Amino acid sequence: MKTKKLISVIVSAIVLGAHAKVFASNIHDYNRTNNDGKFNVYLRAVHIDTRIENGIIEDDFGGFPFGSRLGGTALGLVADYNSGYWQDSIGFDASLYGVAKIDARPENRDLFDDTSGESKGFAKLGQASLKLRHAGDNWSAALQAGRGRFDAGTVVTLDTRAVPGSLQGARGQIQVDGLDIGPLPGVLNIDGAYINRVSPRDREDFERILSKGGFEVDDIKTFSVTYDAKLFALKFAKGIAEDFNKNTNYGLTLRAPLGENSGAVFDTHYYDFRRGGSIWDRDWLDGNAGYDDKASWLNLNLGLKIDHWSFGLSYSKTRAELTNGQLGYAFFDHGENVDGLMDAWTRSGNDFNNDDEQTWQIAGKYEFDGKSIAGISLDGFNAMVLFKRGKFDATNPFSGVNTDIQESQAEYRLNYRFEEPDYQGLSVGMIYTRYWINEDFVALVSAQPNNVVNGKELRVYVDYAF
Question: Shortest CA distance to 251 belongs to which of 347, 162, 153?
Fold first, then answer.
């Protein structure tokens, strides 16, 4: 499992949806406090407890340097001010983030900055941005400049720890309505962003963009074009990290309503990743690159919603050749401290994106809206279960034999957002994940060794929006 140093878990939930569209089911959503012209306070308590194991590392290398139990407990606060638009055209957003340490182990799972060798709380000005907008009869345009939470093109702002991350730069969006195809209402969306600094979710500083090897990247330029005609949608997105990499995403979504509360969706994404210049070459020479020159990730997904039930079936295929002696993988971020936008349904916890890996995933979700137990309403409560299995080849360094590898992941989620008037804004969630791989030696040959270690994790969130 993977973090900044070791082991990954759930950074995002798997897709399963509402009506004819499938979408990510999140416990946490920072936009719940994003109300124009209001000051909002959002409080989160998060607990992460991860156990890891690898027989070879434990028997032959004395175990993991930070122990086999990772995680911590933190209390996070987001205070958001989202102004209205003066003269319907100009406004200002600002956010203060604070994180208090309750408990932390040496590898604290990105809850706190531990680059200095100790975990600690922090506070920062997470957002401070000027915003502009203008609208015509069938179109609207918006611009945001400064520090903010940007989701644009091939870059995303994650909110999966105590507070979300932040990016510095500018983002622009244009929406054009009325581009209909017969009875289908067509909407065109164009967005783009320029980013030159980042502030990850576990620290207070706004810092330079860094490659996997720690080399500075000047900036990221990214954009996307989406056309949505309700029954189908097309997407193209491209991002360039200067002298580092170039990521491109092609997407197609087909939707079919099956009655008032049911529907089906077919969603496919093809990702093309390329080396982008001298910084990537330096990473490759230092053994930190994910692939030689190019990589790809194909993701095919079928979703079905029938009343309270949702089901998803996914397949993905990865190619990421690496000839420096390691097992390659599809690296979809634009830096070590920047999160790439990855809509692949099979990206949950461990990414299952090793070279030549084929992955199948099945997931199911049930929403309890309208149900009750002993007179207590279960509106806002849902449960989800996911199982994923991937297969690829790797060479055993002890025997020199090419070996069939099988990795698996099971994930269980419970979510409850209170709808009662006295508790509105309160939500609780639990995620339990188990990951296992059939050969321990993979961690010794993989270019992402921290993503192929057996482990179990319990994650608990309590969110409250005042």
Answer: 153
The H or E element that residue 366 is part of is strand 358-367
pLDDT at 2 over 60: no
Superfamily for the 38-465 domain: Porin (2.40.160.10)
> What is the pLDDT, as a whole number, of residue 30?
47
CA distance 249 to 152: 12
Structure tokens at 24: 């990510």
Top pLDDT among 203 and 22 is at 203
Query: What count of other Cβ atoms lies within 10 Å of the Cβ of residue 347?
Result: 23
For the chain, which residues make up each domain, given as ranges? 38-465
Tell me how crowded residue 121 is: count the other CB atoms within 10 A of its CB. 18
Q: Supply the pLDDT for residue 11.
A: 22
Q: CB under 8 Å to 88, separation ≥6 — which residues?
A: 133, 135
What pLDDT is recorded for position 466?
80
Average pLDDT over residues 90-107: 92
Is residue 451 classed as helix, strand or coil in its secondary structure?
helix
Q: The tokens 């296992």 sit on which residue?
A: 436
Q: What is the dihedral of CA 347, 352, 357, 361, to 10 degrees?
A: -60
Q: Which two tokens stand for residue 258?
A: 């099956």
Query: Cα-Cα-Cα-Cα dihedral of 9, 330, 155, 111, to 10°?
Result: 30
What percent of the chain is predicted at pLDDT more than 70?
Answer: 90
Look at residues 337, 258, 248, 324 and name the one whose alpha carbon lies nearest to residue 292: 324
What are 376's strand-pairing partners?
373
Asked if pLDDT for residue 357 goes beyond 70, the answer is yes
Task: Give the closest residue to 327 by CA, choosing from 278, 358, 292.
Answer: 292
* Largest Cα–Cα separation, the chain: 72
The token pair at 117 is 């060798």
Instruction: Give the pLDDT confidence score for residue 374 in this predicted structure.
Output: 83
Question: What is the Cα–Cα distance from 399 to 48, expressed in whole angstroms?
Answer: 37
Residues 320 and 357 sit within 8 Å (Cβ to Cβ): no
- DSSP β-bridge partners for residue 74: 46, 101
Residue 37: count of CB within 10 angstroms of its CB: 10
Q: Is 230 left (phi over 0), alpha (psi -120 to 50) or beta?
A: left
Residue pair 217/142 in contact (Cβ under 8 Å)? The answer is no
pLDDT of residue 159: 86
- Cα of first residue to Cα of last residue in the chain, in angstroms, is 34
Q: How would you label 58-70 residue by residue, b for 16+ Cβ within 10 Å and e otherwise?
A: eeeeeebeeebeb
Which residue matches tokens 């070459």? 281
Q: What's the rounded Cα separation, in Å, for the pair 419 and 431?
A: 21
Per-residue pLDDT tens over the stretch 56-71: 999 999 998 888 999 9
